[in-house]
Amino acid sequence: MNNLYCNNFYYNKDVLTFAFDMNNTRFATVIHILTLLARSPGQWLSSDWIAGSIHINPVIVRKELGILQERGWVTSRKGKEGGSMLDVPSDQITLADIYQVVKNANILGKKNLDPNPKCPVGKDINDELDSLFLEMDRLIGTSLQQKTLQDFVKQFD
Amino acid sequence: MNNLYCNNFYYNKDVLTFAFDMNNTRFATVIHILTLLARSPGQWLSSDWIAGSIHINPVIVRKELGILQERGWVTSRKGKEGGSMLDVPSDQITLADIYQVVKNANILGKKNLDPNPKCPVGKDINDELDSLFLEMDRLIGTSLQQKTLQDFVKQFD
DNA sequence: TAATTTGTAACAACTTATATTACATTTATG
DNA sequence: CATAAATGTAATATAAGTTGTTACAAATTA
Predict the structure, then answer these.
(1) Contact by Cβ (8 Å): A115, B50
(2) For strand D, which nucleotides have at least one atom less than 7 Å from a protein CB?
(3) First to last CA, chain B
(4) B30-53: per-residue pLDDT in tens?
(5) What are the residues facing A2 on neighbouring strands?
(6) Where are the domains of chain A?
(7) What element of type H or E holds B85?
(8) Residue B147's closest CA among A121, A135, A105, A142?
(9) Right CATH number for B26-154 from 3.40.350.10, 1.10.1610.10, 1.10.10.10, 3.90.1520.10?
C-alpha cells in the first residue's frame, strides 16, 4: 500500500446508527387513516374500525392519531360513541405535510458514523452526503407539495 | 358506527414485512468505496485499507466489492499485494446507477401487507401507493442520473 | 515456504418496528 | 347511576433487519 494517510486509525465497535429511518409503514398507515377520516366528514370513526380497514393493531392507530392531533389535523373524543374526526379540509393538507409528519430519515439511507478524519475522502464525505441527501429530499418535498390529501382521496371514488 | 363495510375482517398477526428497505448505510458505504477506488486508478486497494477509511468492518467492504464486481465495475485480486481496482471510467457511472445497486425499497417506506379488501379504501390503497412510490422513485432516479461518480469524486480535490 | 489478501459462511450483538396485553380515564345512554 | 364503549398510554413480547465478528479455505506474490 502506498497511500498511507489512513494509517493509525482503525475501526472499532462504537459505530452507532446515525438517525431514525424510513424502514416502516408509517406513511402508508397515516395516509390510510387520513383517507378514511376525509371520506367520513363529521363522523367519529373508532380506532378499532380504522384498524380493521388497514389490518393493523388498533393501538398503533391510536398512536398515529395522537400525532395527528398534535399536528392539529384531528380531534378525538373518548367514551361511548367516541372516535376521531378530521378538523382540516382535505385540500389544505398536502402529501408533503404528511411526509414531514412521518419522515425521520434520508431518502438515500444513513451515513456511516465515523469516517476516518485522516483520509481526505473520509474527512469530507458526510458533508457531501448531507448535501446530496438534502437535495433529494427537497426534490421529493416539492413534488409532494403539489398533491393534496383531497387529490389522493378522490382516487377511491 | 354506521359504515360497516369493513366488518367481518379483523387483523391477525400474519402481517409480514413487504420488502427490504433502505434502513442501512449501503449507499454511503458503496459511494465511499467507489470514491476511493476512483482516486487511485491502477492501484490495488485492500479491503482492510478501504475499511479503515470508512471506519467499518473489512468483511462488509468485501461483500460490497463482490456486488460491484458482479456489476462489472470492479476487479479484485487475491493474495499478497492483492486488492481491488476500478474497471470503468468514473464519468461512466452515475449516482442513479449506484442507487440502483443498493436500492431495495421505496422512498416513502413500506406498504401495509393486508389492507381490508372489503373496504373501498383498503381494497385499492396499495395500488395507489405503488403508483405514488414509483413516481417518487423516478423523480430521484432522473436527478441522480445527471450526476456522475466523477462529479462526486471531484468534490474531494 | 511464508506472508498476505480475498471470498464466504456462520453466528452474535444491536436496533427498530409492530403487536399485544393491560388498565385507568372518559363519555353516552338506558 | 350503572354499564358499555372508547381513548390514552405504559410495559412487554415478537419478529425482522443491519452490522460486526470470528474463522478459515483458497489464491497469489515474493
Answers:
(1) no
(2) 4-11, 15-23, 26-30
(3) 65
(4) 999 999 999 999 999 999 999 999
(5) none
(6) 26-154
(7) strand B83-86
(8) A135
(9) 1.10.10.10
Lowest-pLDDT choice from A14-28, A32-46, A71-85, B58-72 = A14-28
Nearest CA in chain A to B140: A136
Å separating the CA of residue B13 from the C1' of nucleotide C20: 10
Taking every pair of Cα atoms in chain A, the longest distance, rounded to a whole number of angstroms, is 75
User: What average pLDDT does this structure show over A99-121?
Assistant: 77
DSSP A55-77: TS-HHHHHHHHHHHHHTTSEEEE
The answer to whether A51 and A61 are in contact (CB under 8 A) is: yes
Question: Is the Cβ–Cβ distance between A102 and A68 less than 8 Å?
Answer: no
Residue type, B100: Q
> Minimal Cα distance from B4: which residue of A?
A49
Ramachandran sector of residue B73 (left: φ over 0; alpha: ψ -120 to 50; beta: rest): alpha
Contact call for A111 and B24, based on CB within 8 A:
no
The answer to whether A3 CB sits below 7 Å from nucleic acid chain C is: no
Cβ-count burial A84-111 (b if 16+ within 10 Å, e if not): bebebebeebbbbbbbebbbebbbbbbb
Contact B28 A110 (CB under 8 A): yes
Task: Among A25, A129, A147, select the one facing B28 at the smallest CB separation.
Answer: A129
Q: Which residue in this structure is represented by grid cell 389522493?
A: A152
Nearest-CA distance B104 → chain A (Å): 11
Q: Is the CB of B131 under 7 A from strand C?
A: no
Q: Look-up: residue for cell 477509511?
A: B53
Q: Judge whether A36 and A46 are in contact, CB under 8 Å.
A: no
